[in-house]
Specification:
- The protein is α/β, with parallel strands linked by helices and 491 residues long.
- It has 2 domains: 2-255 and 475-489, 3-Layer(aba) Sandwich (Rossmann fold), CATH 3.40.50.2000; 278-468, Glycogen Phosphorylase B (Rossmann fold, 3-Layer(aba) Sandwich).
- It has helices at 18-32, 108-125, 143-149, 177-182, 187-190, 207-214, 223-231, 239-244, 281-292, 314-326, 340-353, 367-376, 392-398, 409-414, 439-455, 457-468, 475-489; strands at 2-6, 36-42, 52-66, 69-80, 83-91, 132-136, 160-165, 173-174, 197-198, 201-206, 217-220, 249-251, 301-305, 330-335, 359-363, 379-382, 402-406, 432-434.
- Strand 1 (2-6), helix 1 (18-32) and strand 2 (36-42) form a beta-alpha-beta unit.
């Protein structure tokens, strides 16, 4: 098959979160299965150009219709670690992608509406006719709308769209000016509730809703999160739309890249190991303590790696620090805050705990250090308020670092409680799960994990090794996406 991914990120050149990792990892998996994959991206001024090889002009005269005129674009071509990518660079006073950031501008809706329009125009003018166009998140929600309503009448009537939603919280809500700019020049038609009108704002259109309505298949990034999106408030107002289109909606769990996240080959850790050489993990624990100036005693290390924000259950992260130390464990945190108030809170904690030999808070993000923490820690906490998929628990499992997670989203699809998971036999369980959002709930799970480490070390080792046996690579998700592509091609 010929597949074109259209997205606002592709790691490691363009990465603000997990979306970039998914676009890269899935594309590589599909190529490994013999499919032709190309990626269309915005050409940001702030992307990592050092991660792009052979960047050159590929299409010099792309004229993208916009309002009553057109915006001239140049399309560049290069490879992000082997993936063939096309970067759209518009030349206009709007400077859509010359902002020094990927997201957060006042006109983000217009910026990505233009990107979606330009991606389609590029496919049309360069005679690219993929079997499937795979779009990601709200930034490309208007692409299937424009494909069906405009470009399908100009030679692109056989292209099919798979639309993947990574985060329902950001949906792309805008006014009628977007319709005028993109050529969707019939507000009465598009403001219909069964098309683009936002479910709770009759004066706005919703990009993500448009993607759901017009795409041939829609998925989110884990089976349980797909269930949550339909039956809880996780979908942030799109539950009724998903119910109407439930016949084409599902969940496919993300994968992780085992060429990068694998203690057997990890170049960022001093001592490589596998489930069969599990004892070597202790050497990485010693190295982690040396690096972070933690005391070297017979204690478990509990860690947290990720963003410090409400989605990640930041109040429970904070509580886990003190509860772990209360239970005679050490705690290591690596993460950056997304809100000033949370940032101030954790900087205060860092200063307060700075001389504590059982705790280290690293505020910021350090890729190399994250690998060492995964390899050196015994337990990783993931107390998310909501989690579409989650990568940290899957990485932790691969490194033999036992996850303690809240039972939401992809966490419930990947972590199976050692004591209470009736759906899996004892030799397939791999961590601890709690469900409420209060302190006692976290304590109950963390207490069981720390207690097992102290009281039954052989059983803790077995649990750690069982987690390492799980395959959360891109192999199975890749197969499922290929099945989706085949299904929508032949509908």
């Amino acid at each position: 098959m010929y597949i074109v991914q259209v997205a606002s990120e592709c790691a490691p050149a363009i990465k603000a979160g997990g979306l970039g990792d998914v676009v890269y990892g899935l594309s590589r998996e599909l190529e490994g299965r013999g499919h032709c994959v190309e990626i269309v991206l915005p050409m940001y001024d702030c992307m990592r150009y050092d991660q792009i090889w052979g960047l050159h002009e590929a299409y010099q005269d792309l004229s993208v219709p916009w309002y009553g005129g057109a915006i001239h674009c140049t399309v560049f071509c290069g490879r992000i670690h082997g993936r063939l990518c096309f970067f759209i660079q518009p030349h206009s006073d709007d400077n859509f992608f010359n902002r020094g950031c990927y997201y957060g501008a006042f006109d983000d809706a217009m910026r990505f509406a233009f990107f979606s329009k330009a991606a389609l125009e590029f496919l049309l003018r360069s005679n690219k006719r993929p079997d499937v166009i795979h779009c990601h998140d709200w930034q490309t929600g208007l692409l299937p709308v424009m494909l069906y309503e405009i470009y399908g009448w100009h030679g692109m009537g056989t292209q099919r769209v798979c639309y993947t939603i990574h985060n329902f919280r950001h949906q792309g809500v805008a006014g009628a000016s977007v319709l005028a700019a993109t050529g969707l020049n019939n507000p009465d038609y598009y403001y219909s509730y069964d098309r683009l009108r936002d479910n709770f704002n009759a004066t706005a259109i919703n990009f993500m809703k448009g993607g759901i309505v017009y795409a041939n298949y829609v998925n989110t990034v884990s089976p349980h999160h797909a269930w949550e999106a339909r039956y809880s408030d996780v979908s942030s107002g799109l539950g009724h739309t998903l119910e109407i289109h439930n016949h084409k909606f599902g969940g496919i769990l993300n994968g992780i890249d085992y060429d990068v996240w694998n203690p057997d080959v990890d170049r960022f850790i001093p001592h490589q190991y596998t489930a069969d050489t599990w004892d070597i993990k202790a050497k990485n624990k010693h190295a982690l303590r040396e690096r972070l100036l933690l005391r070297d005693e017979n204690k478990p290390i509990v860690c947290f790696i990720g963003r410090l924000d409400d989605q990640k259950g930041v109040h429970l992260v904070h509580h886990a620090i003190y509860y772990a130390m209360h239970r005679q464990a050490q705690f290591v945190l690596l993460g950056s805050a997304t809100a000033p108030k949370i940032n101030d809170w954790f900087w205060h904690e860092k200063h307060f705990l700075n001389d504590n030999p059982d705790c280290h808070l690293e505020l910021g993000f350090n890729e190399e250090l994250s690998h060492l923490i995964y390899a050196g820690a015994d337990i990783i906490v993931v107390p998310s308020h909501f989690e579409p998929c989650g990568l940290t628990q899957m990485i932790g499992l691969k490194y033999g670092t036992v996850p303690v997670v809240r039972g939401v989203g992809g966490l419930i699809n990947t972590v199976f409680d050692r004591d209470h998971d009736a759906a899996h036999p004892a030799n397939e369980r791999n961590g601890y799960v709690f469900y409420q959002t209060d302190h006692p709930a976290l304590e109950s799970a963390l207490d069981r994990a720390i207690g097992l480490w102290y009281n039954h070390p052989d059983e803790f080792r077995q649990l750690s090794q069982q987690g390492m046996q799980y395959d959360y690579s891109w192999n199975r998700p890749g197969s499922m996406y290929v099945s989706v592509y085949d299904y929508i091609r032949h509908k």
